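Below is a filled-in request sheet from our internal design queue. Each sheet records the structural input a requester submitted and the sequence that came back. We keep these sheets so that new team members can see what a complete request looks like end to end.

REQUESTER: design group, bay 2
PRIORITY: normal
MODE: inverse folding
CHAIN LENGTH: 123
BACKBONE (tokenized):
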């Protein structure tokens, strides 16, 4: 069953991704480039160079699932990322930020009010 929600952890791959990639090559990016394990259950977000297509790779009960969204107009507004000399591997993001990206809302212009989060979500 499809099960993306606020209880999942989300990681945004900080570089443009070829949207022809599928299960095995996206899993390879997670393992080799991001240094993470796709089987742990996190969701991994990939965006193409023009920010018009998004894929989310997620391990669910029974196997891998890819969610794919292709925009007919506009583009995804991504959060600010520092991809300088440290070569950022992945940026953790949250469910609400993913929803804002999909809805076309610029996350850089959204004001976030302080809320309590469980220890596993504190950055």
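RETURNED SEQUENCE:
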């Amino acid at each position: 069953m499809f099960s993306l929600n606020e209880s999942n952890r989300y990681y945004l791959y900080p570089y443009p991704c070829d949207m022809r990639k599928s299960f095995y090559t996206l899993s390879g990016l997670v393992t080799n480039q991001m240094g993470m394990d796709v089987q742990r259950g996190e969701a991994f977000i990939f965006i193409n160079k023009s920010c018009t297509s998004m894929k989310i790779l997620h391990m669910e009960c029974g196997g891998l699932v890819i969610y794919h969204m292709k925009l007919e107009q506009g583009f995804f507004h991504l959060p600010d990322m520092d991809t300088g000399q440290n070569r950022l591997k992945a940026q953790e993001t949250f469910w609400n930020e993913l929803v804002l990206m999909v809805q076309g809302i610029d996350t850089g212009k959204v004001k976030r009010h302080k809320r309590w989060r469980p220890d596993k979500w504190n950055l």
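SHEET NOTES:
- Helices lie at 23-33, 95-103.
- Strands lie at 10-12, 43-47, 53-60, 63-70, 91-93.
FILED BY: M.R.
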